[in-house]
Amino acid sequence: MATITRTRPSPPPATTDRRRRITARPAAWIVWGVVIFFFLNLLGVVASVLVSSFGQRWFDTWLPDGYTTSWYGRAWDEFALLQVIVVTLEVSVLVVGLSLLIGVPAAYVLARRSFPGKRLIFLVFLLPILMPPITYGIPLATVLYKFGLAGNMSGVVLANLVPSVPFVILTMTPFIEQIDPRIESAARMCGAGLRTVFLRVLTPLLVPGILASAILVLVRTVGMFELTFLTAGPDSQTLVVALYYSMSASGIRAQQSVDAMAVIYTSMMLVLLVVALRYVNPTQLVAQVKEDPEH
Amino acid sequence: MAHWQHRLAERGVDRQLWLLVPALVFVIALFLYPFFYGLTLSFQPTDGGPFSDYARFFSDSYERGTIWITLRIALPAALLNVLAAVPIAYRMRGRFRGKRLVTTLLVVPITLGTVLTAQGLLNFLGPTGWFNRILLAANLVDEPVRLTHNYWGVFFSLVITGFPFAFLLVLSYLSGIDPTLERAAATLGADWRRRFTRITLPLLMPGLATTFCLTFVLAFSVFPSAVLVGNPAGETRVISLAAYQAAYEQYDYPYASAIAMIMGFVELVIIALVLAARSRFYTGSTGGKG
């Protein structure tokens, strides 16, 4: 007991205790106040687009003169939104499928094995995530154009794979590490080959992880602007790129129809995110922890 | 034959490593090859010696200035996002009613997308927008504050898109820290400030460094919002815009590649600095994992 009293920091005098209460409370208030202020402004940002997309004419007043839903119909026709949405879905599904096919086996090896050069390989997979898309996007687009692969769907898919495959590898590795390797050893003892182990033992166990990274890749791909922008041709534009063009060419088109289109895009993303949050606990993305660690 | 296979297997090299091959082929074909292609292209300018495109970039103050402009937007935005995320995430630890709702609310802005954010900022912060109307109505200002089509518009759009991301990561790292450590410190008489600065913060530092890097990458590659809510010819002419213009407006691919290489280099230098600073902190397990 004597040693503990000697090594511990000098006990706080009574005044510190009172000051702690005074400083802790305003700190909490300031934090929540800032959060609320941020949200109010964010609400203003979102609401102004929403109101404007339903507004007839809106100039120097608090609210538009009248309300209409015609901007949505107009945006749908003017921007050929059906085709754009179909392209967006096709690209996203292809990117998700391919990046899982390429990424999951690699994640398995990186999670389970140690071999010479592993750190180097890991770094190479990390780089596409650490580099701004424009940096590798411009040389990549040049190369793809050289081989006639850009300006169409294949270019958009290939370019979007570059950050997606490493993303799958990084998100899948912790999921794989959680699976007891003895399960695989047992399967191998019973005579299962690598392929059987993968398809019959690992894949069913990995379904939650695969779903999680698939949905995250989907959200990322739908939202990825730069790479699609650099490689897309006229009929391979995804929704973000079409939106960008419609907005940067403002003046030609009514602002409200751009607003309507932005609302369509965001509702689509929102549905994806709500689905994603059902499968992924957002606080467990980087550290797989239990909510209440028992110690 | 069997002998060296055995020797390799002892070091961990065997048939299972074939599973890595598709991913390696992919990363070499679509990332490393284009990267080195761009690198060699940047040394083959349309006229002049191998370094003339780099010299051209650095001798032109309008071009050179884009580095400074990008850093001036990206560094404060990333720093603000990470620093603001820490106290909020700190309040969000543990269980309380409505935690999932607040987390969801903080994450939802990820879905907004650049264009809706840009449109919203133009509508809301513009000279006739609600924000300025409220300021005018409350007699806080005499004339509308200019917050769009300049530095601030881009800055705000980076905060809106970057903060939810930074918050998610910081919350995730923070919940990975074993809460019993803090409880132990509390029983030894440490007040909350001491507990935070002596225990939580050092354990959180590596996570904060990673979060800063990822948020910084997002902010550094700012491109659409610099055009839409910024002033793309002057105050917010970021380096990605310069690279894009060189490639798709002047069709000068060697020059565009040179700018892309400079951009990647500057960004990696910042990340290397942050990661070097990070290695000076505790890097072991934070108690929550495993």
From TrEMBL, chain A:
Entry's transmembrane regions: 28-59, 79-108, 120-145, 157-176, 197-219, 258-280
Mind telling me which InterPro entries this protein's record contains?
MetI-like (IPR000515), MetI-like_sf (IPR035906)
Domain of life where this protein originates: Bacteria
Segments forming domain ABC transmembrane type-1: 85-276
Q: Where in the cell is it found?
A: Cell inner membrane; Cell membrane
Pfam families the UniProt entry points to: BPD_transp_1
The text of the family note is: Belongs to the binding-protein-dependent transport system permease family.
Protein's UniProt name:
Spermidine/putrescine transport system permease protein
Species name: Micromonospora luteifusca
UniProtKB/TrEMBL annotation, chain B:
Q: Which InterPro entries match?
A: MetI-like, MetI-like_sf
Q: Report how it sits in the membrane.
A: Multi-pass membrane protein
Q: Which UniProt keywords apply?
A: Cell membrane, Membrane, Transmembrane, Transmembrane helix, Transport
Task: Enumerate the spans annotated as ABC transmembrane type-1 domain.
Answer: 67-274
The record's SUPFAM superfamilies line, in alphabetical order, gives: MetI-like
Q: Where in the cell is it found?
A: Cell membrane
TM annotation in the entry: 17-36, 67-90, 102-122, 151-174, 203-223, 255-276
Q: What is its main location?
A: membrane
Q: Which domain of life is it from?
A: Bacteria
What Pfam families does the entry give? BPD_transp_1
**Gene3D superfamilies from the entry?**
MetI-like
Which family does the entry's similarity section mention? Belongs to the binding-protein-dependent transport system permease family. CysTW subfamily.
PANTHER family in the cross-refs: INNER MEMBRANE ABC TRANSPORTER PERMEASE PROTEIN YDCU-RELATED, INNER MEMBRANE ABC TRANSPORTER PERMEASE PROTEIN YDCU-RELATED-RELATED
The name on file for this protein is Spermidine/putrescine transport system permease protein
Q: Supply the source organism for this entry.
A: Micromonospora luteifusca
